[in-house]
Amino acid sequence: MTKLADWFETSNDATKVLLRLGARPDVISLAGGLPAPELFPGDAVADAFAHVARSAPAVSLQYGPAEGIEPLRALIAAQMRKEGAGSVTAENVLITTGSQQGLTLIGQTLLNKGDRIALDEPTFLGALDAWRPREPGYTAIDWSGNTPVFKPSSDAETMPKFAYCLPNFRNPTGETMTLDARKALVAAAQRDDVILIEDNPYGALRYEGVQPASLISIADQGGDGPYDGHVIYTGTVSKTLAPALRVGWMVVPQRLLHGLIISKQGLDLCTSPLTQYAALHLIETGVEAETSERARDLYRIRRDAMLAALEAEMPAGVTWTRPEGGMFVWVTLPEGTDAHDIFQRAADARVAIVPGDVFYAMNPAHNTMRLNFTNVPEATIAEAVQRLAGVIEGRARNAA
Amino acid sequence: MTKLADWFETSNDATKVLLRLGARPDVISLAGGLPAPELFPGDAVADAFAHVARSAPAVSLQYGPAEGIEPLRALIAAQMRKEGAGSVTAENVLITTGSQQGLTLIGQTLLNKGDRIALDEPTFLGALDAWRPREPGYTAIDWSGNTPVFKPSSDAETMPKFAYCLPNFRNPTGETMTLDARKALVAAAQRDDVILIEDNPYGALRYEGVQPASLISIADQGGDGPYDGHVIYTGTVSKTLAPALRVGWMVVPQRLLHGLIISKQGLDLCTSPLTQYAALHLIETGVEAETSERARDLYRIRRDAMLAALEAEMPAGVTWTRPEGGMFVWVTLPEGTDAHDIFQRAADARVAIVPGDVFYAMNPAHNTMRLNFTNVPEATIAEAVQRLAGVIEGRARNAA
Lengths: 400, 400
What we know:
The structure is a homodimer. Chain A is of the alpha/beta class. Chain A is built from 13 helices and 13 strands. Chains A and B meet through helix 1, helix 2, helix 3, helix 5 and helix 6 of A and helix 1, helix 2, helix 3, helix 5 and helix 6 of B.
């Protein structure tokens, strides 16, 4: 009987379950992390792929360079420079098959079994999934002092290999890191020579307020490139154009680029040149910017609908985050409530949510849950929150 | 200074170098493994993507299931059953981002550090690249007896986790495994409970003769599925349609499917549904079959041109394989010749080849090289072989 690799002892199929939860047509799903499909620019995507395949089949349908096509890398580098990372050049940019692959590449390139990763819990489930095959350990970033600490002083272990953050509208909490926290994090990374992963899938989805500077722009000393600072940045068109393009990117310090490219070609040889040229076309012709703007308008309404419904419906003792952007609200239930119990009862009431404990690598908070507000219309959100509140209230009454 | 993971101590950038070798416009490249770009059905691909994106944007542009879209999985299962693997159902099929990702998935799902892989050398470089991050060991399949042996009796180690083969037109040698060898291999795998990987990227590219039965059809006992035998099969549209679709698949025993799907979602969440639906459309409308037939016609001519040129030009003491299909001829130089030396001198004569030693995991033969015959027209092949023969002859004269 074939035995799976040891890392499966710590694996789960949470992502698979989440992606499937919304499939039942009679269930309102607040469980996924899916964009609103009504935003997808189908005709523009059709035109872009057709244009590329027809005008340059020999290049767009062939294998491409492992690091990605040069014009897309140059365009991303120019965007990064414009946003303050002044020394980034095309050489620093590596195109990935979705930004999930970027996380896989980082783990595969940097981690030996037992190496540690520093992070704030709860965190992105897909990152934990990406790194599990490398069998890492985890440590919480200690924010209690003047500057964040990556390694507990009581710990005999070495520094973590890298620290992972989602500074904008973190999945699952929706929280945004302040500018002061960003500066402190970069200073600590430079002091301890620790790589910072700045995962930024939701950056374009800000519905109010002003975005603090990115970690990479704080870390970048400017000047002539290629960039060689302490931050790896990951981006994607999944939230601004369409997930199915599977086009993401990493902005990588020069000293790590070679290793990441070797890793990348082992994983899938190259990301589709056809899709990369189509994504480039969709960015250059303004379709991405326009889709992104429509997303902000739509998601702002849905976020507001969710916050209003929570305010109106939730029983006392339930609290939640008020995200300035992104896709998620994080709900904390009264102490002692088990969100898995709520999950089951909510499913009976035909509402899907995600129990919060799956987003932890170390110390799960069992009285938490994640709600998504991007994938269903506002009236449906209100209906779902009402049902959910009923479930939570009923549970509280039963417990009393 | 950030240290890369330990597996980089054994890594090389051979694939990257090979993919770039052909880029210099004044060099004739026999080095790559690229299809002829003039075969790519650009207009049909344009139509397929446009049709899918326009007619079903909500599904084709969204995230999809980690295992792939059901209709493509069902179509591949039906093809496998037609080719003799009678118990294969859609449930056994996992869509991958190119068949390279299938190899990565197998390594990630089955290998712990130090686990061994059995194979015949020389072998596919991309497979070695895919498995290197898992830090495996290697063992040669012993074919000296009545039945192949996966584990040398002198060896204290356990059985290999799996055995890897390219039964049809092996990269890099072009050789095809006989039916008797296939039967013996499957019997040995069943006896020792070892998984066999049947990597079949070139199966459709047969230019003469009859294909022996696939390993999976020999291993499959038929009957009601899902299939749960000893063979994992991998296929791709890269050689029959276009590499840039990055659509491959694995046919997987039922007991391994769950582990492979968990692995897959960690790597890139899902393969693009847009591309999968487009590939399905291109298969269903006959474009893939037609492209494949045009490839066979074109590549037969190019293979014959290469074999004729080798016959006419090569000095005594040089031998080569005569592949019935695929993309490569394997050349053995006189004992003592270093193919890296030939590689350098050939580059000076503006011809690119691949020194054979990069295709070995254990005991490299330094007097070997791989020639590709699919990517350049027959007159150019003849010119390249003539230049190469001159280099080899000159080298022999200098050595004498």
